[in-house]
Structures are given as C-alpha cells and as structure tokens.
Batch of 3 targets.
Target 1
Amino acid sequence: GAGVSQSPSNKVTEKGKDVELRCDPISGHTALYWYRQSLGQGLEFLIYFQGNSAPDKSGLPSDRFSAERTGGSVSTLTIQRTQQEDSAVYLCASSPGLAGVFANTGELFFGEGSRLTVL
Amino acid sequence: DQQVKQNSPSLSVQEGRISILNCDYTNSMFDYFLWYKKYPAEGPTFLISISSIKDKNEDGRFTVFLNKSAKHLSLHIVPSQPGDSAVYFCAGNSGTYKYIFGTGTRLKVLA
C-alpha cells in the first residue's frame, strides 16, 4: 500500500507479557516516529529514527520499551513485561525529511495505530 | 512541561458557522506549526501548516493564523461542515525531528 502500515491493529495482552508492534513506513521516507496516545491525552513522542539510527530515545517511558529499525524501513516497538499503564494507541509516522529541509512541508504521515490493552 | 497547549478539550459549532480552534505554545524555538485532524480509529492526517515567518496561511476553508508575540495560533474553518467533526491537534517544530503535539480539541459540527 501507499500509506504507513501498522500491525496489529488491536492487541489485548495480560500484564507481564511482552508485545511487539510493527510499522511499515512509506517507501523512501527516511524519518520514522513512534507516538503514543493514552486515553484523554495528546500525542506523546516516544522515539525518532533517521535511517536505522535513533538519535533520540528520550521519549521512551521506561527501559521496558525498546525500538529498532532495519534496512531503513520496517520498525518494531517492543514493550517488555507490559503494565496496565502501557494501554494506549501506539502511532507510527514517517516523513521524507525535516520541516523546512528540501522545501518539504514537514508533514508526518501517520498509520492507523495499534491499540494496546493490557489487562 | 506542556510546550503546546490546547486549552479547549471540545467545541460545538453549528453547520455553516465558523469554527475557531486555539493553540498556545511556550517554546520560542518553534519555527513551524502544523494542524492535524483525527477521526476515530484512524491515524491523524495533515491539514495545514504555517512557517513562523508568516502570520497567515490559507487553504480552502481552512486558515491558520500565527501570533508570535502572543505565542498563539488558531485554526479557522469556515463554513464548518458535519464532516469536519473530528479531533484537531496542533503541533510545533523547531527545525529538528521533534514534533510536539497538543492534547487536541474535539470539534463537533451540528447539522
């Protein structure tokens, strides 16, 4: 498809289990972002990739969270030993570059998100 | 520290009237602002943006105004349509990778 693809769309898991969320960005987009939207909250920045490297992981809530990106394309967000407060919609976005750079609009293209429910 | 604030969690407007969604920011390093629209069970979609060197940007029914001295921006939708009912997020960017989003305003356009 032409857009950002995320899987699974819905995930229900038990507290303490590990989960993996996948993001397939738009082909050719070098920048990839993970955001989280908890109930009643805004979009919380988690991590950013430029190519395969993640210059800023400061948004990751705890060391239970990790992410990787391979081949400058697909990214996986892993949450270990899930807790109930991890329940949220996890959104992935990609972008061809930075705002103002190469005259692109800075627009982020979001996927539909992965809704995680931790029981 | 909430760098981008949308103080109105919800707004109801009659169809055909103007919708005004507000956003305040604290980070004076922001030089680019964007508005996104989000329908339930969908990802946010880009609506309109504005560079800090401008004070207005217009695209069809949507106009964004930027007041740098007040650190305030607003999105005007006129005329409002029922299909505009969604959650609207504003975001700031300081020329880096990091986009800081507000908490969103839920707009309901009444037919």
Target 2
Amino acid sequence: GQNIDQPTEMTATEGAIVQINCTYQTSGFNGLFWYQQHAGEAPTFLSYNVLDGLEEKGRFSSFLSRSKGYSYLLLKELQMKDSASYLCAVINNNDMRFGAGTRLTVKP
Amino acid sequence: ETGVTQTPRHLVMGMTNKKSLKCEQHLGHNAMYWYKQSAKKPLELMFVYNFKEQTENNSVPSRFSPECPNSSHLFLHLHTLQPEDSALYLCASSQDEPSAMTEQFFGPGTRLTVL
C-alpha cells in the first residue's frame, strides 16, 4: 500500500518556528514536494527534495531522509499569512500521491 | 494568476447530464493534470498527460473522460456522475512529467456539485 502521513492540525505563534512532518511508505520514490494551500485557493509550490538533506528557500526549508521515509517542512519567522494547509506529495515514476495536508494556524 | 485557467469556476449538474470542464495553460508546459479535491480527503491525482499522451490513469471511473487535443488544453468530460463526485476539480501543468520533478502550477479549480 501507499501511505503518506502528516499531522492534521498545528498551531504556532507569529515570529516563531514550526516544523511540519511527513512520513511516507510508497512502492517507489523519485522525490517529494511541499505545497501550500490557502483556504479556497489552489495549491502553490514551496519546495522539493530528491536527495537526502536540507533544501533552503528563504523562510522555508525542507528536509528529506529517504532511508527513514521522512521529510519535514520548516517555516521560520512565522507570519499571519502563513496560516494555510501544507501538503506533502511523493512522486513515484509518474504517479503523485498527496498527504491529507496539515492545517497550520498562526496566532498573534 | 498562475498561467493556468479553468472554466467554469462553478458547475451544478444532475446525474443524467453531460458537461465538460476546460483547462488552458499559457506557460508552454508539456505536462497537464487533473486532480480531485474532496473535503477531508487528500488531493487525488486522476490523469496525467505528457505531450498530449495520457501517461497515468489512477483507476478513475469511466464516467470521467479526459481529452487533451494539444499541450495547452485539457478537458474533462463528465457523464452520469454520482453525488459523491461533488468536489473541487483542479487542473495543473508542469514543464515535464512528474518523474522529472518540475513544479506544478495549479488552476483555480472548478467547484462541481452533482445533484
């Protein structure tokens, strides 16, 4: 089977750092994407990982460990506009499987 | 604006109707996708097209019929749908197919309600 698991909801404070985890068990693996989706809007691309390690893009970083089937998205200096759902997605050849998403609420 | 447009934005149809969803991308991409997003469920990939050829069909019922006449346009023809097919249908495009790990750009979606 194919499983991609993320926490359902998280809450954090403006200016803080939050880590959103994603674990996966899939029959194959090419890479992993992170997308952001605000309520009522389409997903937008944040980051992707193919090899183990950390990829940094401004306030957002994503980490991958292929041996552990594990990734996380790190958001620094949180802003109110970061309140959204964060989706991880695993690529296996030309199939793309999404987790259910983590709804992040940023509070003042 | 992501460069991917979808029409209509909202659609209400009966179970015996036939309707079509349209997607157009202005990004010069080679791959296009249909996704289904239902409440409380993960985003589901339905179909993948690369250079107009279908490369992925994730066990989608035949009442959903995709059509890709060229690399810029993608249609989803709907026929004899069920109420559980009510969802947000998202179109996306990317420079190359998923295994190339190029980011996907999503359209705003069509909110479909089946009565």
Target 3
Amino acid sequence: SQQGEEDPQALSIQEGENATMNCSYKTSINNLQWYRQNSGRGLVHLILIRSNEREKHSGRLRVTLDTSKKSSSLLITASRAADTASYFCAQKSAGSNYKLTFGKGTLLTVNP
Amino acid sequence: DGGITQSPKYLFRKEGQNVTLSCEQNLNHDAMYWYRQDPGQGLRLIYYSQIVNDFQKGDIAEGYSVSREKKESFPLTVTSAQKNPTAFYLCASSILEGGRYNEQFFGPGTRLTVL
C-alpha cells in the first residue's frame, strides 16, 4: 500500500495547548497537503507544502516537511474546542498529476 | 454560493439494487473525483475525471460506474456488483493550475447504507 500513516491515531488536549500531528509517506512527492474533517462532513483543505519547501505557516497552523525522512508534521497552536476534528495528510506523488493518497487521519479532541 | 453539492445526504439501499449518488459543482473546476471512506479509514479513490466525457478508474473502481456528460456533474452509480457498499462517499473537484491539480474541494458527503 502507498498509503501514508498519521501519528498519533488520536490526541486529546486542553484548550490553549498546542497539538502536533505527524505524517509519514512512502514515495517521492510533488507536494503534501493537510485536510480537516469534522464528524460526518466533507474535508476542508488547510495547507499545501511543496517538496522544495521545508516549513509553511497559515494563521495558527505550522507545517514542516522533511523529504529525507519522508515525513511531515502539522502544529496547531493555542488550540480551541472548535479545532476538534480529524486531520488527514495527503500526498501528491511525483509524476502524478491528479492523485492524492490519504492517510488514516488523526482524531484531535480539544477539551474546553 | 460557489461549491460542491452532493445528494442525498443519507441513502438506504436494498441488496441487489443499483443506486446513483449525485455530485454537482459550480466552481468551474476541470477535475472531479469520487472517494469512499470507511470508519477509521482514510479516503480511497474510486473514479476521477479530468474533462467531459472522459474518466479513469481509481484504486477501488470494481462495482462502481460514473459518467461525465457535463463539466458540472459527476454522478456515481453503486451497482449490485459492489459487495460491501455501506460507506461514506465523498465527491471532490480541483482546478488545473500551472499544469497541475493541487488542492481539492469536497462536498458534504453521502452516507450509503445497505439494508
């Protein structure tokens, strides 16, 4: 399977704390994307990082990419109860124009 | 409002029946996708289409069929040949930018249950 893996599978924190989720993948990538899914809903795109980038920020989100280790991390700072959701990484493989390969996701619970 | 709509939100099917899930977008996106999501799992690609009247199989196309007669519409038919169809189905679209498709925009999903 080319599917990546998120770690941890589940994470529970208190409001105001930071949350870090990790993603590992197996093949060379063109870019890596992070998505959020609220329970029973569709996915929402959060951030895209290209293979030649090492770090990217968007509001309270910080994404890093280490292509030598085939891994990425998503940091959410100063978490809020509204951040409770599942978070997925998705890799666009080098040489593929269309296909995203999704991991199984990390379920983040932020307790008020 | 621009976006992707899927209908119905919930769908119940008896064994042996074909059912069609609707997906419409008004984003003027070229590419459209169908994914299946099982509990605790990531998304698996069923079919995708880059232009009208053309589509390709994804990783789990067996038991499914699609059509792309209009740019805005990409319906998915779950046939009786699909042995385990109970799942959450998500439609997505993306726009071609600089020769590549990047972020995907998702609809709200259809939950299909086989009775």
